[in-house]
Write a structure and sequence with these properties.
The structure is a homodimer.
Chain A: H1 16-31, H2 38-44, H3 59-84, H4 89-106, H5 108-114, H6 125-130, H7 133-148, H8 155-174, H9 185-195
Helix pairs in contact in A: 1-2, 1-3, 3-4, 3-5, 3-7, 4-5, 4-7, 4-8, 4-9, 7-8, 8-9
The structure holds a DNA duplex.
DNA sequence: CGACTGATCTTTACACTGTTAGGATAGGTT
DNA sequence: AACCTATCCTAACAGTGTAAAGATCAGTCG
């Protein structure tokens, strides 16, 4: 009797909800969002095609649940990237940016899902993201860098620009144009943050 | 006898290929890429569901043809945005960045398609883009700005960073997170380019 | 003029998708 | 014991991308 993974143990299956999410994440990693069908998810969970509807209102709800987990993983990756980077706030800020791109490179399917709101059922995926740990991690490290004096400018503006630059690098890399480039993603992430004036100051 | 639009005039229909692309672009504007079905395209062109296959190998080929046109329109928009912006190279550079975001805001369906390579049939959409006018417009204006002395740094690096920042702003705006923000897209585009140190220098 | 040819278009069909409706089953409660 | 409700399954519908086979029509060659 193969109970799948988690704790509370459901009724007939053994926490099917969790099994469906795991199967979905697996497919996400293999075939991307567009290659993910609810029926295949059900198949992998060893259950009929209609079973998921007892745990998720529709496909978007499943994806939303997966995305919610993804938001947390992204936030965790950012936090880890920041603390690994070094002692100064500027170094941590830089490390966070690199970690953002790394997350996209290592989990492209999940990363794309996080920013494809039309597939999600959540009322406001924007709010979900903004309210999520990720943005708070960004602000946290940024505030420290400003206090440190290594970054200047209006906090919200700098946060916006940093997010845009790093996010742009991430998608342009995983979705083609930059991915075909000879540059590695580390090089790209570094270059972008440097030019932004965040990683190092290229020339004083 | 409603001949649809273009010049060469096909056989039975009157340039069906062009009519299919126009219908596709129309749907793209109304329902986005994910709401575009080959059958609906055929329906709007007043033709059977299999007819498109005599002009395009598959759905991806149609989308590729549309995207190719989109690349040209984007390049044109960038060029126009640059020349409208003012006399100095820095001003033109700034205007181009704003035009990039404007294009995404005004044609979100098309913009998303351009950067969704998995839907395209083109061998290398990356190459298509890089070799396209858009990137050359960017480099052109950038070189002028460097010559002018208003932008410093390795040309390729600055081009990369600028593209990433502006592209990130564009998608984050059209795909949710920033779109729900109270900022207008003009404000966002301005802020990003300013912080980048391209629009103006925030503080010397 | 009439037969042929090849591109264009239609009809039909298949496998797949998301989703719903109705019936079976098996825990937990009374 | 009877019951109830969450869970799950079978069957079905409309819609999708795509392939196969036949119809039709423009232009060419006898």
């Amino acid at each position: 009797m193969l109970t799948v993974s988690s704790s509370p143990r459901g009724y007939h299956h053994g926490d099917l909800r969790r099994a469906l999410m795991d199967a979905g994440i697996e497919i996400l990693g293999e075939h991307g969002v567009d290659g993910l069908s609810l029926r295949e998810v059900a198949r992998r969970a060893g259950v009929s095609q209609a079973a998921p509807y007892h745990h998720f209102a529709d496909k978007g709800s499943l994806l939303s649940a997966i995305a919610e987990q993804g938001y947390l993983e992204l936030a965790e990756a950012l936090r880890a990237g920041a603390s690994h980077a070094g002692g100064t706030a500027l170094q941590r800020f830089h490390g966070m940016g690199v970690a953002y791109v790394r997350f996209a490179v290592e989990h492209p399917g999940m990363f794309r899902l996080l920013f494809r709101p039309e597939m999600l059922a959540t009322a406001s995926p924007a709010g979900t993201f903004a309210a999520t740990a990720s943005y708070r991690v960004l602000e946290e490290v940024l505030v420290a860098a400003i206090a440190e004096g290594s970054v200047t400018g209006p906090r919200d503006d700098v946060a916006l620009a940093a997010w845009c630059a790093v996010h742009g690098a991430a998608i342009l890399y995983v979705d083609g144009p930059l991915g075909a480039d000879e540059r590695t993603w580390e090089d790209i992430a570094n270059t972008v943050t440097v030019i932004l004036g965040l990683g190092f100051v290229p020339r004083a």
